[in-house]
Amino acid sequence: MSHLKPTVMKFGGTSVQDATAFARVAQIVTGERANSPIVVTSAMSKVTDALLSAFEAAKKGDHEAGFASLAPHFERHTAVARELVGEDRQKAFADELAFSKTDLRDLLMRVSRRSLPLSMLKDAIVSYGEQLSSRLLAEVCRAAGLNARQIDSRRLIVTDDEYGAATPIWEETEKQIQDELGSLIEAGEIPILGGFIAASRSGETTTLGRGGSDYSAALVGAALNSKEIQIWTDVTGVLTTDPRIVPEARTLPVLSYEEAAELAYFGAKVLHPKTIQPAVDYAIPVRVCNSHQPEERGTMVLAESGETPNKIKSLAYKKGITILRVTSARMLGSYGFMSALFQIFERHRTVIDVISTSEVSLALTIDNTDSLEQVVKDLERLGRVRIETENAVICVVGEGLRTTPGLAAKIFSTIEDINISLVSHGASSVNLTFVVKQDRAAEAIKRLHDAFFTVECSNNKAA
Fold this sequence. Notes:
This protein is α/β, with parallel strands linked by helices. It folds into two domains: 7-234, Carbamate kinase; 314-462, VC0802-like. It has an eight-stranded mixed beta sheet with strand order 3-5-2-1-8-10-11-9, sandwiched between helices. It has a six-stranded antiparallel beta sheet with strand order 13-14-12-15-17-16. Strands 4-6-7 form a three-stranded mixed beta sheet. Helix 1 (19-31) packs across helix 4 (71-84) and helix 5 runs antiparallel to helix 7. The protein has helices spanning 19-31, 47-59, 63-68, 71-84, 87-113, 118-126, 128-143, 170-186, 212-223, 257-265, 277-281, 337-347, 372-379, 407-414, 441-462, and strands at residues 7-11, 37-41, 148-151, 158-159, 190-194, 197-200, 205-207, 228-233, 254-256, 286-290, 299-302, 314-327, 355-357, 361-366, 384-397, 422-425, 431-437. It contains 15 helices and 17 strands.
């Protein structure tokens, strides 16, 4: 294994959306050249969605229309190569693209004929977004004078057979990454790999699910004991709240893993908690950067971040929340009731976000209502069920929330005329969560941001 501590740099889809973006990535990687970079890239923006649409068309029997719908996206790759890659290497990329087209056409035909399991074919099809973007980015980086080489991620990340959301097998993955990448880094090469894609033990293509490219970067970073993992997106780090609601929201310099996980779960789209778990396990710092403003420092996510003077770091929210209220006299003084309730949600594979209980009733929230009818039917065996739709969960995050007297009082008095239908506080030391009607969510966020951040800002200036 290499003794160098590389920097893992992951670029999201908007960071590789066109020739300008690709050129910018090559420039950012050049700036990191002294730190033994390893680059992980997502598919070009919109390509994964296009591949999924082509799969759906093939599923309905129209694989030719599915394949034809991909033509503009193939052309986008060619346009980048034309603009940024020398003629001889353009030909090499064109050959690669031609192979990919042949494979995709064949895979889509197999989908319409159902000649292999659809979940397996879907992963094989959707993997081409990352396969092509990583090959193209390697060519662009070489044209920019970098010693870059594309490495197929399917040789590095070994997973189970759960297509669509495969789980890496860590010992085998760690060994593969160390064996394949260690010597390249020692030799001064810059490996460029597609995120999100992996392979099962039998060599079939799998994908890592939502936030999969971040996950790939964290796995590589953990296996090689990286100096840091950089997640390059189109926002400058993690913000105090959603800038679409509060334009003056600002970047947080530091967050803890726990704070970042809470924020991600409740809608802050920068990091998905599962995806940075390998970095958490190996205490590797994760930095969130903006590829459109590379000179900004972004947010550093560390094992611990400490408290800020106002205790609150950020406000996140999630709309489209349904509250289920279950009332049952059977709950009173009985055991096993909660177990029976959770089994219903497990059976229907429905995740509970927030839960609050009393002696004879409980309230919980879900954001996925695909199985709502069956869930409610089963819950009615336990007690009376009431459904409330069109809610939003608001999540206030910061170290010291649970241990600071008067903080909850200030939060709720700031929004005292907005009805709160559910509160969860104390389960996490860094999170206070409550539910309001979704048409009042933006107003609640604005007021809380004003009360906790605008005031803090003016205090800092006065000091």
